[in-house]
User: Fold this.
Amino acid sequence: MNKAFSIWKKFTPYQLIVLGYLLITVIGAFLLFLPISSAKGTYQSFLDALFLATSGISTTGLSVVDIGSYYSLFGQIVLMCIFQIGGIGYMTFIVFMMYLLGVKASIKTSIVAKESLAGANAELFRRFFLTVLLYTFIFEFSGAVILALFWTREYPLGHSIYLGIFHSISAFCTAGFSVFPDSLMKYQYNTLVNITIIVVSLAGGIGFFVLKDMNGYIIKKFKKQYPCRLTLHTKIVLIVTCIVVLAGTIVIFLSEIWPKTIGNYEKILASLFQAVSASTTDGYNTIDIGKMSAVSLTTIMFLMFVGASPGSTGGGIKTTTLAIVLIFLYSELQGRKSNVFKREISDRCIHDAIVVFSCFMLVAFLAITILTITEKTSYIQILFETYSALGNTGLSTGITSSLSKIGRLVLIITMFIGRVGPLVIAYAIFSNSKQLDFRYPKEDVFVG
Assistant:
C-alpha cells in the first residue's frame, strides 16, 4: 500500500489524468479484443479494438466496424461503459466511490478531480461531482424512457429498453455510437427521436457548470432571491452555442439539395439536428454525410472544431475558447482591454484560449499531413475525418473502415489528444521541467 502511494506521489495531476484515460482505453481495448465481445465469437484485430476503445473513451463515435452487427451484447455493453466513463470523466466515479465509502480525498486527488472537469471548485468538488452524476442520471434516464417507449412500436419491450438506454447515454455523452448501421438516418423526419436526441445532446454539450448555474438562477428567480444573475461563463456558452447552431442550421438548410417530396419543416428539422450534432459533437447523423455539399461539409467541420463547452461531455476547442479569441482580437484592434458584459477577461484566460486554439490547429495540421500521405482518398474527406477525430465528434464521410493501419493509428492519437486536451498533455510532459531561476534580456521581433 505504501509502495503504491509512493508511486502515486511521483506523478503530477496532469500525468495522472493522462495515465487514467490511457489505462481505461487499454483495458477497454483488451475486452473488445476478446471473442466474447464479437457476435461471431472470434478475436478482433487489437488495433481495431484499440481504435474503438479510444473512440469510446474520447466519446468520438468513429468506428471501423458496424457496432450493431459486429459486437455481441457483451461487447456493446463494454463499449457503452467506456463512453459513459469517457463522457463524464473517470474521476467522477472515483470521487463518488470515495464518497460512498467515506474515504477522505487527498490534496492530489482533489487537484486531479478538479482538472478532469475543467476546473471545478476544489473546495466543493465532492458536492459538484455528485451534481454531475445527478444531471447525468436525469437526462440519460429521461432520454432512455422516451426513446424506449418510441421503439416499442418496432421492437420487443426488452430490446426497446436496451436501445433507449444505449442511444440516450450515447447522446448525453456526445459519443454518437449507434447499433443501427446508418446511425439515425431511418428517423430523419421523426420529430420525437430528433428532438429527444437534440435536447439530451445539448444538455451534455453545454456543460455541467452551465446546467448548475442555470438551475440556481431559475430557483432564485422563482423564490425572488437577489442577487440573481448568470455567470459570465454561462452567458458566453449560451450565446455562442445559439449562434453557431443557428448559423449551421441555416447554411445546411440553404446549401443542401433536398428531395422534392419533403416540406420545409422536415428540411429545418434535419438541418437543425445535423448542426446540433456537429456543435455538441454528439456524432449522430440523419443525413448521409458522404453525399452532403462541400459548403455543408465545411460548415460542419467548423462546428466540430469549435465543439461543445468546458466541463461538458463534448469535444472541440470549446465555445468559450472561440469567444475569448474573437473578443481578444476585436479588443486588440480597438486598442483596449478585453471586456464583455461589463467584465474584463483575465490575461490568463486569453493566454490559455490562444494556446488551446494554436495546439488544436497544430495537431490538425500534422494529422492531415500524414493522412494525405498514407490514405488514397479525397482531400476534403481527410480534412473531415481529422476534424471529426480531433473534435471527438464521430461524423464521417464513410472512409473510416478503409483507413490504413497508419491512418487508424494517427486517428487514435488524434482522438486521444482531443479528449484529454492538448494543454493537459503538454503539462503532463513538461510540468516536471526545471524552471529557470533567471531571465534573459528582452528584444523585439518584427511580426505581421
Remarks:
- Residues 277 and 283 are 5 Å apart (CA to CA).
- The two ends are 57 Å apart (CA to CA).
- The chain has a mean pLDDT of 87.
- The first strand starts at residue 339 and ends at 340.
